[in-house]
Amino acid sequence: MSMRLPRSTGEWINRDKVIKFSFEGKDYTAFEGDTVSSALWAAGERALGRSFKYHRPRGVLSFANHDVNVMLTDGLDTNIRGDVVTIRDGQKFVAVNTDGGVRNDKNKYIDSISPLLPVGFYYKAFHTPRRMFPFWENIIRKAAGLGIVNFNFPRVTKRKLNRHCDLLVIGAGPAGLSAALVAAEAGLDVVVVDENQYAGGSLSYDRAGSGELATKLADLLSMVNRTPNIKLYTGAYAAGYYTDHLVPIVRADGITKVRAKSVIVASGAFEQPPVFRNNDLPGVMLGSAAQRMIHRYSTKPFDKGLVVTANDHGYRVALDLIEAGVKVLAVVDLRASGQNADLMSNVVRKGIAVHTGQCVYEAVPTEGKFGVKEAVVCPFDEATATVDTSKAVTIPCDGIAMSAGWAPAAALLYQAGTAMRYDYTVQQFVPAKLPAGVFAAGKVNGVFDLAQRVHDGARAANDVLRYLGKPAADVVVSEHAGAAPSHPYPVVPHPKAKNFVDFDEDLQLKDFINGAKEGFDNIELMKRFTTVGMGPSQGKHSNMNAIRILARIRGLPVEKIGTTTARPFFHPTPIGHLAGRGLHPHRLTPMHAWHEEAGAEFVEVGPWMRAAYYKKPGLSKAEIVQEEALAVRHAAGIIDGGSLGKFELQGPDASEFLNRFYTGIFSSQKIGETRYALMLDEAGVVVDDGVVSRLGLESFYVTVSTSNAAAVYREMQRCLQTWKLNVGLTNVTGAVGLINVAGPKARQIVAKTTSLDISDKAFPFGEIRETEVAGVPARIIRVGFVSDLAFEIHMAAGYARHVWDALLAAGKDEGLRPFGTDAQRLLRLEMGNHLVGHDTDGLTNPFEIGAEWAIKMAKGFFVGQRSLKIIAKRPLKKRLVPFVLDESYKGQMPQECNLVIEDGQIKGRTTSVSYSKSAGRVIGFAYVDPNQASPGSRFNIRTDSGVMVKATVVKAPFVSLQQGA
Amino acid sequence: MPYRLLKFALKKEHDEPRFFRALETPKKSYDAVIIGGGGHGLAAAYYLAKDHGITNVAVLERGYIGGGNTGRNTTIVRSNYLTPEGVNFYDASVKIYEGLSEELDLNLFYSTRGHFTLAHTESAMRTMRWRAEVNKHVGVESYVVGPDEIAKACPQLDLSCSGKAPILGALFHAPGSVARHDAVAWGYARGADRLGVEIFQNTEVTGIDVQGGKVAGVQTSRGYIATNRVLSAVAGFTPRVCKMVDVKTPIVIHPLQACVTEPMKPWLDTILVSGSLHVYVSQSSRGELVMGSSLDPYEVHSTRSSLDFVEGLTSHMLDMFPFLSNIKVVRQWAGMADMTPDFAPIMGKTPVDGFYLDAGWGTWGFKATPISGKTMAETIARDKAPELIHSFRLSRFEDYELTGEKGAASVGH
């Protein structure tokens, strides 16, 4: 039976394009633009889903994504909102969370055993005896959740945009559009967003049976479209409000992050269901849902039914229903008095009975609860919310439209920090104090009359102009006249319950009463105990009634109950949208392409990609690493160190700064000299180390470790600001390339590329020279991290590849071989050099790693000094020592971070462990008891499998040195 | 069907008693006053009454019960810490948790699902081994596992993390659990209330009266209360309360954010943590994915949410689970974490006589709820902290005897 109405102007469907889809295995047709719900409803279907807990059949409630009665999957996607998602040709839908489909859901029995499952039942059962809980939990877990996740769903990468504007208007209803037009006329750059497919808000559905408003909307929209400085986005919702007017706008294709100078929230109000028995049956829907169905999708909500109301809006709904050909049997008005005389006489004139002071006591279901058979209407006492069932009458019908009140769509206002107050003239929360730059207009501001909403938009726009320091007019908005748009307590008790407040969570009136009885009688505790508002629609249709009910239970005015905190997101927002493209940038050194060609295996170090080792056919990684290291020991190796942190410090206070920042003395450092630099935090913990070279009286060049470079730079900046020293700090990490040539033949190789005298006498260890290498300006530092003979060459990054190639050519006949970070780590271990972060942890002090020599306590202040003074007086708890395993040891190889155990106690751990071909045995670093730290001491390492291995403390280095070669 | 459910159906009226009394007017004095009606404060009250017979106790809560970090955390309970002191302490907590539903006769949905801390780098693997070795030493079931075992427990996980951070292994911690966090607070509140403890919600402490270096009472929005013993268990508000008694702590407040998806049929049975990707995730018994990430990098005393948090977290979630692209995040929120320099709590006595601290709970407070309550109750009752929390004493900062747990924080903070 088709419920589709004749074509009407302004409908959101394209009758020229018919598409096919299926629902629960049955084929249907729809028009392009139809949502799943509108197409199914037009086809005469009523039961479009099953409820979360009791598995009751559900149909359309809000038709606006304010509930999740119609939650679907198409086999690909999970939790599709049938009310608002338009159909693509060929889609095959089924409802989520059924066992056997909507018609024959095997779980429907749960509805009849609901007395076993009162509010919070799961807190009170299943836990005794303890061993049985996993059994029950398994059953509960199976019942939980909505849609089934498709593990093959592709990763979606949505674009992100940033947008700035003078004014962001949220909601393209009459208030929002009016505000936009006024602001745009004053020259502001205005962005308007609306979550619906088309703009217009209530103008697109709330017509009271007249075509006049359609014309008004068309006029308004054509004005907006003619205004170049208004950009209107539909199908776009404001997902949240974040600090400083940051509002992410979500559309199908991605998120636009709008930073607005000002924001007008004109997001309207959510219609709220009156609470009565079986108010959730398919066919019982909100008045605004019925109107949306009629005017947007030209679909008849039902054939004959009634309107239950408590405000003017219900009468407007009745007029729309009549116009759509619905036989309206009666308007049932909870209010004994206060009706709008014009609207009422309009309705009465059409021959409709109006029953004032009456309520729908219950909707009586058809077989299987798939629809409404009749409505039971009886007198209702507003003051006490009690009914007189002795005077009940039964009206056969197939639908009920409900209009009893509204809740402001104020989530963004709350997130912005708006203080709300309860306004008794409209029986609604309205903004009391808005944060700077945030404004509200229309229904969300408690303004309901259409003309006044237009005024209120203009008023808000002028408030924006004033806020932005522009000339502004005073617009007067009339106080609300007539009856309140919301009923203070549209709640009808019923001994058999099933009078629903929260449709997502299947919460009935008694659940709130019982929750309060158990002590959960403030709104936050009530939310958490009953779970009201915690479903996917986040309380849009339920929180206001929950507040009213709790106020009634407590005997307090509504404003004393307050509201729960509204958090992002306004609508649940897809992870793919939020994640965006998931960029994962890497920094590459100038030699990266060379490394790739040479077969490098890369490793991430901080943000950098570094060559770990260079693959060789037929050799394992371990073998290659030993080979690369041996080349350095016996001939020479070359490594790309471009990722090292590099900073230039200039200025009269540069040496003073370094004196304070590091533990050593730099004021006495000679020009051309380099010094080890140890960085501590205020607690005296070792944070980083590096090398400071003095280039001039007021000029220093500092290198720090790759992975800490960003943090050290940040800390240097912070200290500079705190200490107010006259130093220019420049991070040249990416601008400068770095190549290290190490090994006994390093000197003769480097000598071929520079005119500088690099003999040990002319250029001893620990010095820096500014010179040329391969014809380009470069600095060379004599370092000794991986070998006691090594030249670290620093040059502009653009020249680095050229120098690299020149050095390789120079070393071709000398056995020069590139090595990666793995060999570097082994080489430095062989040299007895610890690695900060590898051989230290978040609590290591310099005494524990034997770095006393690097600390100049006698100088003035430095970071960590005060702590070191205290620590120095305390007994050392552990000490990092170089160790070897016996040459003969053949057992399980100890791993880094195995424990050092003495007498069953943890005394320390290994931090570096490696086999060294040069040393001919396993070598490493370990923390041991200070009593066992002297060379020759033996200690136990416990391997992963629990085997104790004897290790011997030795003196570093583990390899013999060349001594200047 | 359990008998207890039948009982509901057999009764005409819902005659379940209140969890806790609705009290408005405090007495003039109490033997002890607990500031903060979160899990910790309520647990301390419960154990004061139960273990030590001290029932003349008031719990003062500025908002509502469990409304602070008890209701904001991601409900993970574990004991796979790095220091033996930490492991022993949290292990004691796990053991109480395991029997707590029965003890409080409230189903806390304490669900032992196993906990994987994924390692994507060699250095993370080293830390995992360190933790595993310390855990084993203390008798806690943690060990390093390879990618195969992870895949077995969570076949949906992309072990390459979209090629961005391949998983090398993990620290598996068998006792890792999740629980219904609100219920923990309610259960302790009910237990304490039944033993005579008085709980006052909407009651703000505005000052602490110290005379001659000793606590004499507290000023509250409901008037002055005389007492010689005050426990501060206020998570992100610790600096404000400590200021009232002029006790200095090294605590700084950073926001910690979290978010939750809409419900879906359960598929994720374990608890997964990735340090490198800054993600921890589990699926609740409602079917929601509960997700958290690292601390916000700045000090802020507020619970506002930020967009970049959820952008970063979801991006990393997709690296692990690419198929979640169209799953929707319903809600995000934030808590205030009081961070200590060594990532261990501050518990015990303070320089002010009768002022006890249960603080510095950073991002690890929920899992310690039972044991912190138990040990703080003992501290208050005996005016002496038990050995179990000796390494968490406030004076350790002056003594440079920190309890380094940074390496065991769930994600890099």
UniProtKB/TrEMBL annotation, chain A:
Its EC number is 1.5.3.1. Residues 878-959 form the Aminomethyltransferase C-terminal domain. Belongs to the GcvT family. Residues 591-859 form the GCVT N-terminal domain. It holds the Pfam family SO_alpha_A3. It is an enzyme of class 1 (oxidoreductase). Residues 166-453 form the FAD/NAD(P)-binding domain. Keywords: Oxidoreductase. PANTHER family: AMINOMETHYLTRANSFERASE (PTHR43757), AMINOMETHYLTRANSFERASE, MITOCHONDRIAL (PTHR43757:SF2). Residues 497-580 form the SoxA A3 domain. One of its GO terms (molecular function) is sarcosine oxidase activity. InterPro entries: 2Fe-2S-bd_N (IPR042204), BFD-like_2Fe2S-bd_dom_sf (IPR041854), FAD/NAD-bd_sf (IPR036188), FAD/NAD-binding_dom (IPR023753), GcvT/YgfZ/DmdA (IPR028896), GcvT/YgfZ_C (IPR029043), GcvT_C (IPR013977), GCVT_N (IPR006222). This is Sarcosine oxidase, subunit alpha. It comes from Novimethylophilus kurashikiensis.
UniProtKB/TrEMBL annotation, chain B:
Residues 33-76 form the Rhodanese domain. InterPro entries: FAD-dep_OxRdtase, FAD/NAD-bd_sf, Rhodanese-like_dom. It holds the Pfam family DAO. GO terms for cellular component: cytoplasm. One of its GO terms (molecular function) is sarcosine oxidase activity. Its EC number is 1.5.3.1. The keyword Amino-acid biosynthesis does not apply. Keywords: Oxidoreductase. Coiled coil: none annotated. PROSITE patterns: RHODANESE_3. The keyword Metal-binding does not apply. Gene3D superfamilies: D-Amino Acid Oxidase, subunit A, domain 2, FAD/NAD(P)-binding domain. It comes from the Bacteria. This is Sarcosine oxidase, subunit beta. It comes from Novimethylophilus kurashikiensis.
